[in-house]
Write a structure and sequence with these properties.
Oligomer: single chain
Order of helices and strands: HHHHEEEEHHEEHEEEEEEEH
Structural class: alpha+beta
Number of strands: 13
Largest sheet: 13 strands, antiparallel
Number of domains: 1
Helix content: 25-40%
Shape: globular
Strand content: 25-35%
Number of helices: 8
Length: 317
């Protein structure tokens, strides 16, 4: 990537201020490693609501929209407060995941997932709707035996995924002025709120620029005041470094749904749908892609202090 950057800078005919801008964005890309943009974009689906709840001065928002924005802001702020409280008392579950993604090589994987403090233990049950062969089952059990033998390595691998989400959450909470809310619309027990970029907001980083290009909507459960669904889409290409460094294609999208569990006195809201389709290219024609469709069901409560070995035993049942 460094060589490609030098070639671009050596042959560009842009004015000096353009080259300075490109240099600044290249510095950001070195930090972000461009491919991380896809991770940030994907993670945004599950944490975007955290950003939308901070107070806004209304900068860049037309006067006739300000009242609707404030009303929506109050609703989202209440939802965020509830989400924050719930996050402090999050329980662990086992569940069934059906996923088709880059991780699964485009196949439909049915997995049993068990949550632990160290990460999520997964046991593959089916591929493309078909039971695994005896050989494939043996491979899965061998992989899980490796997890039990070296839980520290498993935790390090899982921590990388947690760090991606934590980074996205931290970044999103810094963007309270990035979106404009539409009117709150009641749909049965749900409140629907549209959002779109606030043109008066100037993104401060590459990730912010990608997120700021989204428009979409969110649904909040009116009784529980919890986030039920959020989705966003890139209506236009988002170019970084005037398109020389990276471009996220128009039509890239995400959607995330969360539903309350039905097998506990105090239902916990769990992610039941993840749907992302991200397309783009980075410097010197490297592809940016994150395609995933996952559905989670059959949640069953497990002990919060469960060890990795105990989780593996449950996954293999």
């Amino acid at each position: 990537m460094e060589l490609g950057w030098r070639v671009i800078m050596a042959h560009t005919s842009y004015p000096r201020w353009h080259r300075v801008h490109l240099t600044r964005e290249m510095t950001e890309i070195r930090k972000t490693k461009v491919s991380g943009l896809a991770k940030i974009y994907w993670a945004a689906g599950s944490v975007l609501a955290l950003m939308l709840a901070s107070s806004s001065s209304g900068a860049g928002i037309p006067t006739d929209e300000l009242q609707a924005t404030v009303s929506a802001q109050q609703i989202v702020s209440t939802m965020l407060a509830n989400e924050d409280v719930a996050a402090q008392h999050r329980d662990h579950y086992e569940y069934i995941s059906k996923e088709r993604s880059d991780r699964t090589g485009g196949h439909l994987w049915t997995e049993k997932v068990v949550e632990t403090n160290a990460g999520k233990v997964r046991m593959l049950l089916q591929e493309d709707g078909q039971p695994l062969s005896a050989e494939r089952i043996a491979q899965e059990r061998g992989r899980l035996a490796g997890v039990v033998a070296d839980p520290a390595a498993f935790q390090r691998k899982e921590q990388a995924l947690k760090d991606d989400e934590a980074h996205a959450r931290t970044m999103l909470t810094l963007l309270p002025k990035a979106f404009v809310f539409g009117d709150v619309r009641q749909q049965g027990d749900e409140m629907l709120i549209d959002f779109r970029p606030n043109l008066g907001y100037e993104p401060q980083s590459l990730e912010e620029r990608v997120l700021h290009g989204m428009s979409g909507s969110m649904m909040i459960d009116a009784k529980a005041m919890r986030l039920h669904h959020i989705e966003g889409r890139m209506p236009e290409d988002v170019s970084i470094g005037f398109g020389l460094l990276a471009t996220i294609r128009a039509g890239s999208s995400f959607a995330t749904s969360r539903d309350p569990t039905s097998n506990s006195t105090t239902p916990e809201w769990k992610t039941t749908l993840i749907d992302s389709a991200i397309d783009g290219k980075a410097i010197v024609f490297k592809a940016i892609a994150r395609n995933e469709h996952a559905e989670h069901s059959d949640f069953v409560r497990v002990a919060n202090d469960m060890s990795v070995a105990q989780a593996v035993a449950i996954a293999e049942q």
